[in-house]
Amino acid sequence: MDFIYDLPNWLFFLLCASLTVLFSVTGSWLVRPWAQAHALAKSDDYSEHNDLVSYFLGASGVVYGILLGLVAAGVWSNYQDVSNEVDDEATITAALYQDLATYPSVERKAFQDELKLYTRRVIDTDWPAHRQGVISQASSHVLRSFKRHITDYNPPDKRMELMHSQVVSQLNDLLRAHRLRLRGSQATLPPLLWWVLILGAVITIVISWFLVSQRIAVQLILSALIGLLLGSLLFLTAAMDNPFRGEFSVDADAFDSVLNEMIKY
């Protein structure tokens, strides 16, 4: 299903909504004659039959609504967490670059150039890989090399020892934030949960087929609205499921801003 992230959001929404609406309306049209005959066999009107179906539809809707609401809230929370982690990584990178300005000129240039290279790798290599659902090691290689060079440096005096310890602490924070971003790129709903969500939508729609109205147009419109609602909710959950993929995703603007500051100052 990775192809859905290559679609624009409007097209992806139309695809989800069209499938659920078509399924709901078609099923309602096909099942209506049987449901109508069964309802009349039990009563002179459809009230008793519809009351029974409404009970099961309400119970199914409540259970499925709670499940879908919890999943959507979890997906949105994960999206926000990943966005915050990206901002934290960019902020730490900018602060570390400023701290390196206190080093002697030769080391300062070498360290800052390497950190600048790391930022470029994040923007030019990591993010395109995130968009494809894979993890790039390009920035990780640069960051490991940068750490090795920092830890090999021997401060010449007490002042530099103090600054160097702060830089090492910032570097450890950057390594942690970097790791969280890479893990966040793989933080998606498990396939089993998606099967349950889709099955719940199907069950809810199928139960609605057994409602009978004396006017078929009203029944088909209501069926279409139920399908549209469920399709919209499934679209929203899928669009936010992978924080780095699709149009609704975390971008690299924070790192672009940091790189611009590095180039200017």
Describe this structure in words.
The protein is mainly alpha-helical. Helices cover 80% and strands 0% of the residues. Helix 1 (9-42) runs antiparallel to helix 7 (216-241), helix 3 (105-131) runs antiparallel to helix 4 and helix 6 packs antiparallel against helix 7. It is rod-shaped. The model has no long low-confidence stretch (mean pLDDT 87).
Short description:
With 265 residues, the chain is an all-alpha fold. It is 80% helix and 0% strand.
> End-to-end distance, in Å?
44 Å
Report the total helices: 8
What ranges have pLDDT less than 50 throughout 5 or more consecutive residues? Answer: none
CA radius of gyration is 28 Å
User: In total, how many beta strands?
Assistant: 0
Structural shape: rod-shaped
Largest sheet: none
| Backbone structural class | mainly alpha
Oligomer: single chain
Helix content: over 70%
Tell me the fraction of residues in β-strands, as a range: under 5%
Mean pLDDT: 87
Order of helices and strands: HHHHHHHH
Please render the helix and strand layout as text.
Blueprint (H helix, E strand, L loop, with lengths): L8 H34 L4 H53 L5 H27 L6 H15 L5 H27 L6 H18 L7 H26 L11 H12 L1
